[in-house]
């Protein structure tokens, strides 16, 4: 064989040897990781639930009603405008998630950041109040509470409600 062919052969052997070493080290690291973490890691999993108990206070209906009667808190209805217009907690402000699409909603400019805000959405399963609460946190609002049972439970209790002008209460 010529020197040129031997040189090429040596380069190819070196290349494949390095690939073999990299694959071997990666395999050993993978096995070690799986031994340490048997459940493994799924890079395609998106976390959709968060422990928010330490970030927000969840309140029940009697506590929310008491807050309404005291008149010191501002209620935030996070449902869409159509649902808000049908009926809502008296004095509530409509602030759906969509209002944050273009940045800070203008209504927030009129609310002091230390104002107690009580948010609610449709039901206990509804996550829009939680999403809006997270967004409000980014704008430094700190006194946030979420009515856990939501608007449907409020209506079932026949608690006070109001509707926009020209809209009949259910």
Throw out a few tags for this protein.
single chain, about 170 residues, alpha/beta, Oxidized Rhodanese, domain 1, 2 domains, five-stranded parallel beta sheet, 5 strands, about 40% helix, elongated
Description:
- With 170 residues, this protein is of the alpha/beta class.
- The chain folds into 2 domains: 1-45; 57-156, Oxidized Rhodanese, domain 1, CATH 3.40.250.10.
- Helix content is 39%, strand content 10%.
- It has 5 helices and 5 strands.
- It has helices at 3-36, 61-70, 81-86, 128-138, 151-156, and strands spanning 57-59, 74-77, 93-94, 117-120, 144-147.
- A 5-stranded parallel beta sheet has the order 1-5-4-2-3.
- Strand 4, helix 4 and strand 5 form a beta-alpha-beta unit.
- It starts with a helix and ends in a 14-residue tail after the last helix.
- 17% of the residues are buried.
Helix and strand arrangement:
Elements: H1 3-36, E1 57-59, H2 61-70, E2 74-77, H3 81-86, E3 93-94, E4 117-120, H4 128-138, E5 144-147, H5 151-156
Parallel strand pairs: 1-5, 2-3, 2-4, 4-5
Fraction in helix: 25-40%
Please give the order of strands in the largest beta sheet: 1-5-4-2-3
Strand content: 5-15%
> What's the quaternary structure here?
single chain
Overall pLDDT metric: 84
CATH topology of the largest domain: Oxidized Rhodanese, domain 1
């Amino acid at each position: 064989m010529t020197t040129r062919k031997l040189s090429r052969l040596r380069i190819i052997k070196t290349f494949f040897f390095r690939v073999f070493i990299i694959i071997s080290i990666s395999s050993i690291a993978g096995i070690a990781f799986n031994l340490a973490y048997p459940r493994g890691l799924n890079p395609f999993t998106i976390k959709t639930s968060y422990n928010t108990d330490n970030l927000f206070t969840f309140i029940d209906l009697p506590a929310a009603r008491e807050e309404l009667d005291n008149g010191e808190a501002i209620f935030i209805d996070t449902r869409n405008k159509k649902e808000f217009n049908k009926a809502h907690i008296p004095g509530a402000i409509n602030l759906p998630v969509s209002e944050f699409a273009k940045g800070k909603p203008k209504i927030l400019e009129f609310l002091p950041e230390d104002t107690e805000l009580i948010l609610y959405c449709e039901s206990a399963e509804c996550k829009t109040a939680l999403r809006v609460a997270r967004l409000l946190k980014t704008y430094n609002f700190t006194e946030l509470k979420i009515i856990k049972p939501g608007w449907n439970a409020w209506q079932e209790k026949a608690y006070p409600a109001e509707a926009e002008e020209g809209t009949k209460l259910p």
